[in-house]
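User: Here's a structure from my thesis project, written as structure tokens. My advisor, Dr. K., wants to see whether a designed sequence matches the one we expressed. Can you design one independently, without my sequence as a hint?
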């Protein structure tokens, strides 16, 4: 993993106080956001957050671009499911909010479209099948 920013390290440490497993998953999910920021904005995470705070960059455009990045690199390649992609974006959003970047829930829903999760149809066991067990 790339070197963590001070903001990211603080966020992960605060999560670990409540639940170590949550912190581990968040660190894993945010690694994708860190790589995305380095690639797309050619900057480190702390500078990216500072630019979002000062409105130099649009937070909704950054998150929308992150969804498209995950769609191309993780979803279409089969490395992640739609639910995992949604969780990664929500984790990035929580990190940004923790870092004092203002994000309106309504604007987020309107401007950042998540991939749809495919719902499997559940079928009940028939009497014939249930007798086999």
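Assistant: Designed independently from the structure alone:
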């Amino acid at each position: 993993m790339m070197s963590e920013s001070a903001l990211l390290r603080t966020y992960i440490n605060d999560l670990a106080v409540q639940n170590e497993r949550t912190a581990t998953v968040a660190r894993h999910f945010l690694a994708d956001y860190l790589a995305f920021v380095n690639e797309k904005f050619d900057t480190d995470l702390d500078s990216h957050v500072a630019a979002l705070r000062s409105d130099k960059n649009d937070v909704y455009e950054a998150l929308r671009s992150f969804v498209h990045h995950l769609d191309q690199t993780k979803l279409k390649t089969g490395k992640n499911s739609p639910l995992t992609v949604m969780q990664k974006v929500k984790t990035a959003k929580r990190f940004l909010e923790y870092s004092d970047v203002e994000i309106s829930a309504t604007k987020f829903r309107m401007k950042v479209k998540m991939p749809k999760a495919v719902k499997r149809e559940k079928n009940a066991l028939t009497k014939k099948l249930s007798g086999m067990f």
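When you compare it with your expressed construct, this may help: The chain is about 65% helix and 0% strand.
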